[in-house]
Structures are given as C-alpha cells and as structure tokens.
C-alpha cells in the first residue's frame, strides 16, 4: 500500500509491505523517514542504518539515499522544503540525523492529515496551508535540531496585543473581504511579516489560525443570512465566500452540529 499526498511545501507518504527504491537525491527537500510497523533498512550516503519502529532518520537536501521494507513493515515519510523560511533560520537546518519519535502519535497525526487533505474538495489554498502548518508544527515540536536553539524569538512571542496596528488592519481586512478568496500572502503582507511568522503569531494571540478565524466570520455571516433572509443555502454559501455549498455544509456540521436547513428550521 502507498498513500501519497502533495502540497506546495511538502509531500506526505505512507508505505506498507514490500517496497524498495533505487538510490536517488532530492535537491531541495529534507526527508524524515520513520518506521511505524516493523523496521526499515536505510542507505544514506553509503552508510547503512537499520531503523526500528519510532526511530526517525532525517536526510538533508542532495544526500543520496534509498530504503527497503519487507512484508508486515511500514513507514511514514515527510518531505519538506523551505525550512529556512518556515522556521526563520539564518543558516541551513541542522537536525540530529537519527532520533526517536512516538510512533503511535505519528500514525494518529498522519491519519488526521490524510483525511484533511483528501476531504479538501476545492476548499481553497488557505485550507491546504492550515494542514501544512499542522504538519510543520508537529515537526517543530517533535524533532531536535538548531531550529529550536536559534529560532527567532518573535515567532514564539507573537503579536503583543490587540492594539497592534498591523493586527487591527489584518482583522479589519478579513471582516471587509470575507466574501472573496483571501490568501495568507495578502494577510502576511498587511502585517509586515513572513507567512509562517504571521500564521504562528496570529494563532498565538487570537487563539485560532487565520483560516479558522476567516471560517468563523463566514459561518457567522451565513447564520445571520439564514435568520434574516429567505435566500437559498446555495446562494448564501457563495455570497459569504465558500467555494461550494458542500463546504458550507461541512463547516456547519463541524462547528454548529447541524445542517444549514436544520439551523434555519429551528428558528421558525
């Protein structure tokens, strides 16, 4: 079995049972390989490693590598680029090459990420960025390396308070433009931050990510229109910024616990 998902900044794999690949290189990607069942024979720059369950091996860009698993064995592989931008490092990432992670937690997280990316249904770039950030935050807190020792302290501090004029402008922009697609790049530009610094800082202060905050704005406006108008659910979903009615249905079920029609019916 092979499950492979790709986003702009990473690739996520789960490979089980007999598998072997030829030695190769990735010129711009780090690779984290973790056996989640059994073990994995890994060749890194002509050095042999026998990885046991939960034993992560981190490959740097341009390193030649190959691995092999047998029947009954399985690995999770995460390939990620742009580490310097993501973690705001002023030098290349230097990880501990071989380290242990919680295999059960990684499997749970992988299932969650896979479901999120497979249920995308055209929900937009901000949803993909949300899932990317979850994966990146998992790696940040789980792996050991110079990103923890030398990362920019402002990433952890976040924005100081709600009086911050940059944040005020971002929040106002989101309130004014919820009915159209809004990219993280736009919001980060308004805040004067890099994209990942902005996402982490926003969540540290507001308590939810920019995507979740925008989703709440759209759901709140949809609720208001369901209460005060007789517009169809399809019209409302498109008017408040959802790409399709199915996105509004999923959001309502997740956050309100019922469908838009059920919400409207209980009001009358």
Strand residue percentage: 15-25%
H/I helix tally: 12
| Parts with pLDDT < 50 across at least 5 consecutive residues | 150-162
> H/E series, N to C?
EEEEEEEEEHEHHHHHHHHHHH
What does the radius of gyration come to? 21 Å
Order of strands across the biggest sheet?
1-2-9-4-7-10
Q: Into which percent range does the helicity of residues fall? A: 40-55%
Shape: elongated
How can the largest sheet be summarized? 6 strands, antiparallel
Mean pLDDT: 85
Distance between the termini: 51 Å
Structural class of the secondary elements?
alpha+beta
Number of strands: 10
Short description:
Helix content is about 45%, strand content about 20%. It has about 270 residues and is of the alpha+beta class.
Explain what the structure shows.
It is a single chain. This protein is an alpha+beta fold and 268 residues long. The protein contains twelve helices and ten strands. The chain has helices at 83-87, 103-118, 125-142, 146-150, 153-157, 165-176, 184-191, 195-206, 210-228, 233-239, 245-255, 260-265, and strands at residues 2-6, 10-16, 19-20, 30-37, 40-44, 47-51, 55-59, 65-69, 74-80, 98-100. Strands 1-2-9-4-7-10 form a six-stranded antiparallel sheet, with helices on one face. α2 (103-118) packs antiparallel against α3 (125-142), α6 (165-176) packs antiparallel against α7 (184-191) and α7 crosses α8 (195-206). Residues 150-162 have low confidence and may be disordered.
């Amino acid at each position: 079995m092979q499950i492979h998902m790709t986003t702009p900044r990473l690739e996520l794999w789960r490979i089980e049972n007999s598998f072997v690949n030829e030695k190769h290189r990735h010129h711009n990607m780090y690779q984290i390989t973790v056996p989640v069942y059994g073990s994995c024979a890994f060749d890194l720059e002509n050095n042999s490693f026998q990885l046991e369950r939960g034993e992560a091996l981190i490959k740097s860009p341009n390193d030649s590598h190959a691995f092999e698993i047998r029947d009954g064995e399985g690995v999770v592989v995460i390939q990620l680029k742009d580490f310097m931008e993501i973690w705001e490092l002023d030098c290349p990432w230097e990880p501990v090459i071989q380290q242990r992670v919680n295999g059960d937690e990684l499997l749970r997280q992988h299932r969650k990420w896979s479901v999120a990316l497979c249920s995308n249904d055209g929900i937009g770039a901000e949803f993909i960025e949300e899932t990317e950030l979850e994966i990146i935050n998992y790696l940040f807190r789980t792996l050991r390396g110079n990103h923890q020792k030398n990362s920019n302290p402002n990433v952890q501090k976040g924005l100081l308070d709600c009086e911050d004029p940059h944040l005020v402008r971002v929040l106002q922009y989101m309130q004014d433009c919820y009915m159209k697609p809004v990219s993280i790049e736009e919001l980060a530009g308004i805040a004067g931050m890099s994209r990942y610094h902005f996402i982490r800082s926003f969540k540290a202060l507001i308590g939810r990510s920019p995507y979740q905050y925008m989703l709440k704005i759209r759901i709140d406006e949809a609720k208001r229109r369901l209460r005060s108008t007789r517009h169809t659910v399809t019209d409302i979903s498109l008017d408040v910024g959802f790409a399709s009615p199915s996105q509004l249905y999923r959001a309502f079920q997740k956050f309100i616990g019922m469908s838009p029609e059920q919400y409207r019916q209980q009001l009358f």
